[in-house]
């Protein structure tokens, strides 16, 4: 998109999580009136700076976009991919969402989780059934809600070591080429120094525990929900997500599936269709 840069006002800084950990965030605003806000939670090894297509698409439509780097990712401190317990991610998300809401009083707020972030935002919303601040909607982009492309052997090692050596770290072994079919986007990933491909023993067991809990509480979801899946996802297999979606009893739920797409649907070939569907859903929920 040939969009002049001066249409986007960008800010960055740090916000404290509950335990004082300073989390890096970025925000992009249109120069004119803001209709709504999309707050994004990244996935494993990602960070707040990888959603350029979403930013460039939504800003001219008068949405503001916020992104945060969860602890152990991007420009935020902490051992890469390590948490003591899932509660730390939940507190990071809660602190971020509260910060965004405080900065934009009364503006419709949407929370999006991508990949592992999809599980993270669901856990956050389901643990606090009457969320403060109020969310106008929740979005899952190719969420990690079931089996993944990580080798079962590595997951088993993680389980075995979680108690005795929780900080044990190893490469997840997921090929960048499974992310998308666009060569330029793959090259950007490989060159991105802020990305990592690590997992830790403790994260492995905390992920399993949280996944089981979230799947068991699907019927309690009570916010408008949008799920966007890649039919050809070899990173987070879509079956677990479809299964979760079926269990939601809340009437306002929508599922879009892009049969050819790979995991990073916001960056893959045909991403424009994905963003058009996203915008239409946001517009309907203002």
Topology-level CATH name: Rossmann fold
Text of the CATH class? Alpha Beta
Determine the number of helices (DSSP H or I, runs of at least 4 residues): 8
How big a fraction of the residues is strand? Answer: 15-25%
List the secondary-structure elements in sequence, H or E.
EEEHEHEHEHEHEHEHEH
CATH structural architecture? 3-Layer(aba) Sandwich
What number is the mean pLDDT?
94
Determine the CATH superfamily. Answer: Alpha/Beta hydrolase fold, catalytic domain
Q: How are strands sequenced across the largest beta sheet?
A: 1-2-4-3-5-6-9-10
Topology of helices and strands:
Elements lengths: L7 E9 L5 E9 L5 E6 L10 H7 L4 E6 L17 H18 L5 E6 L1 H12 L9 E5 L10 H10 L7 E3 L11 H9 L6 E3 H16 L8 E6 L8 H9 L5 E6 L12 H14 L2
Parallel strand pairs: 3-4, 3-5, 5-6, 6-9, 9-10
Antiparallel strand pairs: 1-2, 2-4, 7-8
Helix pairs in contact: 1-8, 2-3, 3-6, 4-6
Observed structural traits:
286 residues; alpha/beta; Rossmann fold; eight-stranded mixed beta sheet; two-stranded antiparallel sheet; 8 helices; 10 strands; globular
Question: Would you write up a description of this structure?
Answer:
This protein has 286 residues and is an alpha/beta fold. It has a single domain, classed as Alpha/Beta hydrolase fold, catalytic domain (Rossmann fold), CATH 3.40.50.1820. Helix content is 33%, strand content 21%. The protein is built from 8 helices and 10 strands. The protein has helices spanning 52-58, 86-103, 116-127, 152-161, 183-191, 201-216, 239-247, 271-284, and strands at 8-16, 22-30, 36-41, 63-68, 109-114, 137-141, 169-171, 198-200, 225-230, 253-258. An 8-stranded mixed beta sheet has the order 1-2-4-3-5-6-9-10, with helices on both faces. α1 crosses α8 and α4 packs across α6. The relative contact order is 0.15. The mean pLDDT is 94.
């Amino acid at each position: 998109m040939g969009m002049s840069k001066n249409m986007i006002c960008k800010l960055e800084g740090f916000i404290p999580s509950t335990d004082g950990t300073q989390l890096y965030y970025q925000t992009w605003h249109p120069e004119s009136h803001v209709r709504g806000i999309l707050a994004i939670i990244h996935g494993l090894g990602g960070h707040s700076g990888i959603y350029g297509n979403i930013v460039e698409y939504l800003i001219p439509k008068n949405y503001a976009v916020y992104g945060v780097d969860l602890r152990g990712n991007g420009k935020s401190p902490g051992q890469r991919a390590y948490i003591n317990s899932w509660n730390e991610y939940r507190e990071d998300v809660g602190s971020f969402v509260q910060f965004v809401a405080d900065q934009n009083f009364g503006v419709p707020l949407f929370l999006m989780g991508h990949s592992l972030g999809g599980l993270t935002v669901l856990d956050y919303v389901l643990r606090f059934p009457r969320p403060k601040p109020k969310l106008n909607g929740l979005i899952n982009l190719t969420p990690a809600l079931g089996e993944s492309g990580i080798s079962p052997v590595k997951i088993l090692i993680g389980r075995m070591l979680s108690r005795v050596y929780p900080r044990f770290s190893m490469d997840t072994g997921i090929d960048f080429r499974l992310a998308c079919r666009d060569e330029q986007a793959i090259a950007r990933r490989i060159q991105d120094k802020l990305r990592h491909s690590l997992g830790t023993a403790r994260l492995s067991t905390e992920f399993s525990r949280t996944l089981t809990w979230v799947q068991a509480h699907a019927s309690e979801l009570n916010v408008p929900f949008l799920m966007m899946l890649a039919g050809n996802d070899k990173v987070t297999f879509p079956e677990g997500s479809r299964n979760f979606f079926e269990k939601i009893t809340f009437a306002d739920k929508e599922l879009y599936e892009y049969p050819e797409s790979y995991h990073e649907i916001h960056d893959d070939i045909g991403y424009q269709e994905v963003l058009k569907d996203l915008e239409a859903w946001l517009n309907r929920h203002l």
